[in-house]
Automatic annotation (TrEMBL):
Record lineage: Eukaryota, Viridiplantae, Streptophyta, Embryophyta, Tracheophyta
Protein name in the entry: RNA helicase
SUPFAM superfamilies (UniProt xref): P-loop containing nucleoside triphosphate hydrolases (SSF52540)
EC number(s) from the headed UniProt entry: 3.6.4.13
CDD domains in the record: DEXHc_RHA-like, SF2_C_RHA
Gene Ontology MF annotations: ATP binding; hydrolase activity; RNA binding; RNA helicase activity
Gene3D superfamilies (UniProt xref): 1.20.120.1080, P-loop containing nucleotide triphosphate hydrolases
Catalytic activity: ATP + H2O = ADP + phosphate + H(+)
Keywords associated with the record: ATP-binding, Helicase, Hydrolase, Nucleotide-binding
EC class name: hydrolase
Signal peptide: none
PANTHER family in alphabetical order: ATP-DEPENDENT RNA HELICASE, ATP-DEPENDENT RNA HELICASE DHX34-RELATED
InterPro entries (UniProt xref): DEAD/DEAH_box_helicase_dom (IPR011545), Helicase_ATP-bd (IPR014001), Helicase_C-like (IPR001650), P-loop_NTPase (IPR027417)
Residue ranges constituting the Helicase ATP-binding domain according to the UniProt record: 37-198
């Protein structure tokens, strides 16, 4: 394991000391500890299926460590989940985060030479496999959690790990999910070796069900509860009778319904510590609901969970409050893996934001879609963990029954330009032929999509076209493009700026355009600051070429109502005369217009 800049202290007990069993004795997974370890040792691939909240994410890595199966790598689909689960496991093992238990998300890495359980996002692991090949998998066991979440990175990690499993008989792979299609994963790994198979372990939830109950209500019960009209429910709140005929946009009536439901819960739930988690599809929808709740700040403490929010700020939602009712407004970032203490109510809009490749316009686009039943069940699992739970689904029961069972894999709907380029730049020949590798995916993309990506990269001079039977080779430009820890479009933008002698500005713009979590965060409210920022920007320019670039870009090419929130958190000290950060804030606004 690589050393972090400052190595934390090790565990207070010996490194293989048992974790405190009393805290987790009621978790359903605990009853299967010995069997789980036994099956993982006997089989190269094990699939663990257990209901949300059964304890598999936090406990299975510790089971393996107790049996001296280490080091252990665990992947989670999202940064927030990586940090939250790593903190939970470190606390359970009574050690400082970064010692025996570490994590790596994006540019944030808290790992030491003594780290024996490491949590990473699928994207981080994918980058490491590209750069180091089989050496990136220098672990005894790899746990891929939430395998039902079919991001491009998750699918590529799965196919790459499978290729390396063929070369390393000692590696153990553990797949975990609450809603995975068992038959598909069994079939996917059937060619590993003669006589080998995927061992499946199902975790019963009987113990936990006796402790905490979950109740699910649909739109019919919600409107009855609130005493609102029940006429034409699907048309009023769902835009149609079934998912195939209904747009997934959120009407003002839906926002009003959510607000009224929050108030009803608050007025009728005497325990102030019991929080409310609301799933909404977009940042704009989070804003809309926040504006409704903000005047009631004496009653509610509102937290936001979104990809643009700093992870440490997002983790504040994990705290239990005794003075205010906690309301968490979240996108699908809170959908899996994470236990948020004392969430007793989940309000599910049953909508999400999906990115897809528009082949006609040759660009990524977004659309609001209805969630799958699998996603809805993951959202349901956010409650009933530390207390009884009530789930409100804002669709009718008949509407819900017509939802798709699983979401469509991202690898089938996104452009694969960046992934194809990164594969071509991979050091290991086992994964550096995108045409071959992608056809080995769990859901292989259309070969035409791969060919389109290759042709585009050749036209951009990022790849050299091979002989009829040869492999595509990355050019210097292609390797440079692939080396940036940015999206494909942001990386191209940086190099385009460099062509015009504006490399520094291009790098800043690329980072601010693409970095997640965003270095400039949109605050909720405080519109009165618009004029202050406008006056500050107008007062800060001087005659240097660099200042003219920032000044003209921010003032004359951008609408000022957008500028204010871009500057808000990036420039906390602008009134003290610090004119460096405001320039960074100004240039970030260009990201919206390129």
């Amino acid at each position: 394991m690589g050393e972090s800049p400052s190595s934390p202290t090790s565990c207070s007990s010996s490194r293989s000391a048992p974790f405190p069993q009393s805290n987790f004795a009621s978790l359903p997974v605990m009853a299967l500890k010995d069997k789980i370890v036994e099956k993982i040792l006997e089989n190269r691939v094990t699939l663990i299926v257990g209901e949300t909240g059964c304890g598999k994410s936090s406990q299975v890595p510790q089971f393996l460590l107790e049996e001296n199966i280490k080091p252990i790598l665990c992947t989670q689909p999202r940064r927030f989940a990586v940090v939250a689960v790593a903190k939970m496991v470190a606390k359970a093992r009574n050690c400082e985060l970064g010692a025996q238990v570490g994590y790596h998300i994006g540019h944030s890495k808290l790992i030491s030479a003594s780290s024996e359980i490491v949590f990473k996002t699928a994207g981080v692991l994918l980058d490491e496999m590209r750069d180091k090949g089989l050496n990136a998998l220098n672990y005894k066991a790899i746990i891929l959690d939430e395998v039902h979440e079919r991001s491009v990175e998750s699918d590529l990690v799965l196919v790459c790990v499978k290729q390396f499993l063929l070369k390393n008989n000692d590696l153990r792979l553990v797949l975990m999910s609450a809603t995975a299609d068992i038959a598909r994963y069994r079939d996917y790994f059937k060619d590993l070796g003669r006589g080998e198979r995927v061992e499946v372990l199902a975790i019963a939830n009987t113990n936990q069900q006796a402790l905490f109950q979950r109740r699910v209500s649909y739109l019919e019960q919600v409107t009855e509860l609130l005493g609102t009209s029940s006429d034409l429910l699907a048309q009023t709140y769902c835009s149609g009778p079934n998912p195939s005929m209904a747009a997934a946009d959120i009407k003002p009536e839906v926002h009003r319904l959510i607000f009224d439901l929050i108030l009803h819960i608050h007025e009728n739930e005497p325990d102030i510590e019991k929080g409310i988690l609301v799933f909404l599809p977009t940042y704009h929808d989070l804003e809309q609901q926040w504006h409704r709740l903000n005047p009631l700040s004496s009653s509610f403490k509102v937290h936001i969970l979104h990809g643009s929010i700093d992870t440490q700020q997002a983790l504040l939602a994990m705290k239990i409050l005794k003075s205010h009712r906690k309301v968490i407004l979240a996108t699908n970032i809170a959908e899996s893996s994470v236990t948020i203490p004392k969430v007793a109510y989940v309000i599910d809009s049953c909508r999400s934001l999906q990115v897809f490749w528009d082949a006609t316009r040759k660009k990524d686009s977004t659309e609001l879609v209805w969630v799958s039943k699998s996603q809805a069940n993951q959202r349901k699992g956010r409650t009933g963990r530390t207390c009884d739970g009530q789930i409100y689904r804002l669709v009718t029961k008949s509407f819900f029954n017509k939802l798709e069972d699983h979401e469509r894999p991202a690898i089938l709907r996104l452009s694969l330009r960046q992934q194809v380029l990164l594969m071509c730049c991979a050091e290991s020949r086992a994964i550096n032929d995108p045409k071959v590798l992608l056809q080995k995916a769990l859901d292989p993309p259309d070969p035409e999509f791969i060919e389109d990506a290759l042709n585009l990269l050749v036209c951009m001079k990022a790849l050299d076209r091979p002989s009829p039977r040869g492999r595509y080779e990355p050019t210097f430009y292609g390797r440079l493009l692939a080396s940036f820890p940015l999206s494909f479009d942001a990386s191209v933008l940086v190099l385009k700026f460099a062509d015009f002698g504006l490399l520094q500005q291009g790098i800043l713009l690329g980072i601010l355009m693409d970095a997640q979590p965003q270095p400039i965060l949109r605050p909720f409210g405080e519109e009165h600051l618009v004029l202050s920022y406008k006056l500050h920007v107008l007062a800060c320019g001087n005659n240097s070429p660099s200042d003219n670039f920032f000044y003209q870009s921010s003032v004359y090419r951008v609408r000022l109502p957008i500028l204010w929130w871009r500057l808000r958190l990036y420039c906390p000290n602008w009134s003290k005369g610090d004119d460096t950060n405001w320039k960074l804030g100004c240039i970030s606004v260009l990201a919206t217009y390129f």
